[in-house]
C-alpha cells in the first residue's frame, strides 16, 4: 500500500499564489495519535463601548440556564459557548491618570497592562497575548499572527484626556511601545493569505494583476490533480469544501469591488474591497479568519468589529447617532433599548463565526473544537466606563481545555488575565505570565 503521508506544508501553487491545504488525516497516517492531533487556534474578537448589562448577563450558573435577552442571539451555538461573569480588567482603571477610559480599555484588553497617558509622546502599554503566542508558536505557520479590523483607524493625535488616538485602534501590541496596525481591507488580507512568499516581488505583483481578472484557484487547481488522488475520500471532500470557501470569499471581494462605497469625504481615501453593508463586511472578515485557521496559515487572529469609542451608526437597528454617544445612556430607556439592539446584533455576527468553524470537520471533531475564541469588551457599561464584571464569552473547546455549554460565574475582580493564561496554556504555552494574572482559571474545563 502506498504511503499517503503528506507534508503539512503541502500546497497548491499557481502564478504567485499559494493555497495551503487544510489539516488532513491522510497527512498523518501512521503517526502517533499525539502527533496527529490538530493544533489549537486562538481568536480574539473585540466589540466597543460596553453593553446594556441589564440584558446581557445570565441568571445562574451551570447548564440549566436561560439565555438573556441579548444572548438569545447565540441560541444556535449555546452548546459551543462558555458564558462568563466576574472577570475584571483592573489595569484599565484610572489609577491616578483620570479620564481616557476608552483608550485604556482597548490597550488593556489583550495586554492586561495599564496604558500610560502619553500627552503626544510615545504610547506605552504592554505586550499583548496574541503577540506572546505569535513569538512562541507563530513559527509553526507561514504567518505568525493576523490583526484585522472593520473600521478605519482614528488619527494618532490626542483624543481623550492626554491619550493618543492610537490606543483606540488596536488590541495587539508587539512591544510595550509598538501597537500592531490592523488590516481593514479584505483584498489585502486575501493576498496575504494566498500570495506565494517563495515568488519574487515581480511575480507576486503579476499575480495580483492576474487575480483581478481570474480566480486565484484557477491558477492553482491544476496542481490539485497531483495531490487529490493521494487523499482519502473524506479528505477529498474536505479539500473540496475548503476550496469552495476560498472561491466564495474571493467572489465576495470581487462583488464588493464592483459595488464600491460612496465617495469618501475630501482628503480621506476609501479602502477597496470593503462591502458597503456593515454586516457583510464583518462576515467577510470573519470568513478570512476561518480561512486562515482552516489553511493553518496562522493560528492566532485578532479581529476588532469596531474601534473603541466607535462613532459608527447603525440605522437598521435604530442607531442613527454615534454608538459611542448613545452608550452614554444615562439610564434612559430609549438609549438602553438601542444599545441592547446593537449588542444583540454584534452577538449575531459572533454566532455566524462560531457556526462557520463548527461546520468544518477536522480530525475526529470540528475546527471549532480546536479553537479558543474570546469575544467581548473591556468596558462593561458605556455610561459608567467601568471595567468590572466584563461581558466576555468564550467559544470552542481549545483541544479539550474548555468545556462550553455552561454559565460560569467567577468571583468578582477575577483578573481577565487569568483567562488569557488559560488559553495560552491550551495553545502549548504552559509557563507564561500575563499582566495582573494570578494563575489559570478554575472550572474552565468543567
Could you characterize what this model shows?
With about 450 residues, the protein is α/β, with parallel strands linked by helices. It folds into two domains: about 1-35 and about 195-260, no CATH class; about 40-185 and about 275-425, 3-Layer(aba) Sandwich (Alkaline Phosphatase, subunit A), CATH 3.40.720. It has eleven helices and 15 strands. The chain has helices at about 35, 100-110, 130-135, 185-195, 200-210, 220-225, 235-260, 280-295, 325, 335-360, 415-425; strands at about 10-15, 15-20, 40-45, 80-90, 145-150, 160, 165, 175, 180, 300-305, 360, 365, 370-375, 390-395, 405-415. The chain has a seven-stranded mixed sheet with strand order 5-10-3-13-14-4-15, sandwiched between helices. A hairpin with a 2-residue loop joins strand 8 and strand 9 (about 180). Helix 4 packs parallel to helix 8 (about 280-295). The longest helix has 26 residues, at about 235-260. It is globular and about 65 Å long.
Shape: globular
Helical coverage, percent range: 25-40%
Structural class: alpha/beta
Report the top-level CATH class of the largest domain.
Answer: Alpha Beta
Low-confidence stretches at least 5 residues in length (pLDDT < 50)?
A: 1-6, 262-271
Number of folding domains? 2
**How many angstroms does the end-to-end distance come to?**
43 Å
Give a quick account of the main beta sheet: strands, pairing sense, barrel closure: 7 strands, mixed
* SSE string: EEHEEHHEEEEEHHHHHEHHEEEEEH
According to CATH, what is the topology of the largest domain?
Alkaline Phosphatase, subunit A
Specify Rg, calculated over alpha carbons.
22 Å
State the total count of DSSP E strands.
15
Query: Could you tell me the mean pLDDT?
Result: 86
The total count of helices amounts to 11
Architecture of the largest domain, according to CATH?
A: 3-Layer(aba) Sandwich
In terms of DSSP E residues, the strand content is: 5-15%
Cross-sheet strand order for the largest sheet: 5-10-3-13-14-4-15
